[in-house]
Every structure is written in C-alpha cells, then in structure tokens.
Write a structure and sequence with these properties.
Blueprint lengths: L9 H12 L2 E3 L1 E2 L22 E3 L7 E4 L12 E2 L21 H15 L9 H14 L2
Parallel strand pairs: 2-4
Antiparallel strand pairs: 1-3, 4-5
Length: 140
C-alpha cells in the first residue's frame, strides 16, 4: 500500500478480504517507490499496482518495482523472480531395430489392426475419435 496515505478505504479492506479468501497475500516490494507516475503536475505519483502471492510462500514473498523502465506508460513494471528447482525427469523410449524380424512382425500386426477397423460408419467427429482411440489402444 502507499505509505503516503495514512488510511485505507473500505474498498482496499474488501480487496484484502477477497485476496485472503483465495489464500493469497499482498507482496512486499523490495524497493518502496511509486508505481504510477502522474502526467499532471498537480497530481502526485502513487502506488496503485499490487502483486499477490500464495500465503506464507518462502520463494515468492516479494517483488521489485522498476521506475526506470516505465517508458511511455504511466505505470512502472513489477517483476518477481521465480526459482526453478533442478529436476531430473527419467524417460525411456522403446525402439525396434530397422529391418529386423521385430520390425516386420510389428508392421504386419499394425496393418492387420488397421484392416480390421470398421470405418464404414464415420459420420461425426465422436465416431472418428472412437476409432482413433481403438487404434491407439491396440498398437502397443
């Protein structure tokens, strides 16, 4: 919230209640500067842009305000760094050697499955999807 205002309106209180109901909380900026810069000399700059994060988040608990990057907009960009943990994803791939007996057997089995599909009543997308699902479940 903007420290230049010593009060909070009922609207801001309602916003905090709504945010809390989604298990979120107001992020604290790493630098406390204005987020909106007025084009009019008589109007002061203010903080009207907010970020909300999951409550009690250790990784996501604050954001940065970049007043030097606001360019033609009257609002400054807000950024947050999101840590990405290293994770190994194990995967496996089945393969058949080219020109092997396994390949010949597999191709013959697939051809038989395709030949035996009843495609005479393909009148809509649902029936086509059923045929495709049948095909994929039979080819392993």
């Amino acid at each position: 919230m903007d420290s230049s205002f010593s009060y909070h309106s009922s609207i801001s209180n309602d916003l905090i209640i709504i945010v809390d109901s989604f298990n979120l909380e107001l992020s604290i900026p790493t630098n406390s500067v204005s987020t909106r810069y007025s084009d009019t000399a008589s109007k002061a700059s203010s903080v009207i842009d907010f970020m909300f994060f999951q409550s009690r988040s250790i990784e996501l608990n604050n954001h940065s305000i970049h007043p030097d990057l606001y360019l033609t907009s009257d609002h400054t960009p807000l950024t947050v760094s999101i840590p990405i943990a290293k994770e190994n994803v194990n995967s496996s791939k089945f393969s058949i050697s080219k020109n092997s007996e396994e390949e010949i057997t597999f191709v013959n089995e697939v051809m038989t499955i395709i030949k035996n599909l009843n495609t005479s009543n393909l009148t809509d997308c649902d029936k086509l999807e059923d045929i495709v699902n049948l095909l994929t479940s039979n080819i392993k």
